[in-house]
Fold this sequence. Notes:
It is found in: Cell inner membrane. By secondary structure, the chain is α/β, with parallel strands linked by helices. The protein is built from 22 helices and 11 strands.
Amino acid sequence: MNVLIITACPSGVATTFLASRGLERAAKRRGWNATVEMHSQLEPVVPIGRAALEAADLVVVAASAPVELARFIGKRVYQAPIAEALPDPDAFLTRAESGATALTAAAVAPLEAAPVVPLMPAASSPAGGGKKIVAVTACPTGVAHTFMAAEALARAGRGLGHPIRVETRGSVGAQDPLTAEEIRDAEVVILACDIEVDSSRFAGKRVWRTSTGSALKKSEQTIRDALEKAQVMSGATGHPVAAGGGAKAAGEREGGPYKHLLTGVSFMLPMVVAGGLLIALSFVFGIEAFKEEGSLAAALMRIGGGAAFKLMVPLLAGYIANSIADRPGIAPGMIGGYLASELGAGFLGGIAAGFIAGYTARALSRYVKLPASVESLKPILIIPLVASLVTGLVMIYVIGAPMAAIMSAVTGFLANMNSGNAILLGMLLGAMMCFDLGGPINKAAYTFGVGLLSAGAGSYGPMAAIMAAGMVPPIGMGLASLLARNKFSKPEREAGKASLVLGLCFISEGAIPFMAKDPLRVIPVSILGGALTGALSMFFGVQLMAPHGGLFVLLIPNAVNHVLLYLLSIAAGSLVVGAGYALVKTGKAELPGATAPTQSKAWGMGAGDDRAAA
């Protein structure tokens, strides 16, 4: 069969080429004779010749910008946004073959009058029937997933013809915050959040909740699901509670214990990072310099170890409770967390205190009914008082001692384990860090390492293994794109460079584009490299004071002991991943979404933003 393929994106840069090459290869695999016409700003358009046009049995138009269609009148034509052709060109051609219809003169005018994806939809009436969408993205660390998910949603919204505005709630707080007018005009709200965020401003709107991972990997499906399945959220300011029979289907505040735990960890993390680095700075003057009263080293140790590390467990417990019960849970949660620290129960006790306080406060809020005259006292007096009393008594008389015994056993095991146990623990933690690159298993290992920092000296080894292993997949993917350049397309090589830089910063998500494209090869080699790095780090007895920062932490003297051995561990695992993937990778496959657009603050994504993406 003779097929004509026409591709065009708004900026006419990379997306045009990616789609045309993917469709051309898919057509050849089917035995079709394909002729391609690309609309690009980088080189003149070469129109399809008369002979090819007359012989064509099918015309496939993958375009998000106007193309001249009158020449195809009478031919079987299939037209769709270019974004639909990128993920699976074979499936796209299957739809084209079955869904193509004869093009008539009456159909040409409206098709050419408006692009498939409008560049700048009008604020009051989006062109092409697009529906206004607002979204919020947030992940526990607020670094990579938050912004990658935002960019993926922005790109998918543009590809589907829906103007979208995304607010990111990262480690530096809210960026590009949504305005009241934007929320009011939105058709649907997407909350792609792995932690709890204040959703009271969306009361009365149709809300769809999902994870950052889902928004990143299945962005178009996320938008479609939101438009089809989102449910109206009820509630008042300060009480963002989804209600109604369909609210749970859309994902309500009760996101489950895992989400509440990640919320607490996300608020605790800056405290741990700051405290760990301050402790490391005190070691610049000597390992025991802090023992000299009145010295700068003593002051740094007092700030980092005496204040920051003492507050980390109360902060963890307080915001776990806040995630469960909103603001009434903070006070009892922090009180329970402080008691956990005083009782020696550590971060395990803090987690228990947070859940006890949160669920107690929520039960009081929901089930204790008071006269209207004293109802206003419930959130500021009755709930904090009763929940704090219950949490405190449970911690002192029930939970505290067993949790303290468990923490003592864990820290004792870490301090006295032999090299064989250390290697096994390092292998396990390293493999977990590389299994899903920021997913639940990765976060479980990371949370374990962060929590152990509260136990003090002797518990810094697992954190070193965890951070080192988390750096390996993105560094390895970058190395693979350099070692086997002929197996990687140009977009993949560019993604490899970005992945390498992100890996050095301990942002494991830099390898996600490669994992999403080729999981059966990327995941096994990543696990192998991560396990090796974790095992070597634990075997060498490396200890790390801060839970983030990548190689930049090494700039602080004594933040990491055995620096050269630590670098050797990371290099060994990265080489295993890089060489392994370079060896097993086959062909030259494009990476859809390897480059991400710069998010626009306007409803519609302009041509400049398209150029960044395409």
